[in-house]
Amino acid sequence: MNSLNRFADPVYCLMRVIVGLNFASHGGQLLFGMFGGMPGSDTPLLQLCGWICLVGGFLVAFGLLTRLAAFISSGTMAVAYFMVHAPRSFFPISNVGCDR
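Now predict its structure.
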């Protein structure tokens, strides 16, 4: 197992960049309608979620305040799940995400 320790830091960095940019793209989808999203949402809570996703995703990707950004972002996703997805179905894929 010691031979794989040399790959720990590069793999950790790569995963942080991929997950952070994926999260930021979800924020761009909510705020600006990128990637087939819903632009100009009138709901202030959805706009707040979009900004948290966008800023938190970039912070995680660039490695700035990573733990704080990940904590706040994960809390936002937990609230979104229990407010929107969980009442419709246990699995978000079965209710097509946020179909308004």
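The radius of gyration is 16 Å.
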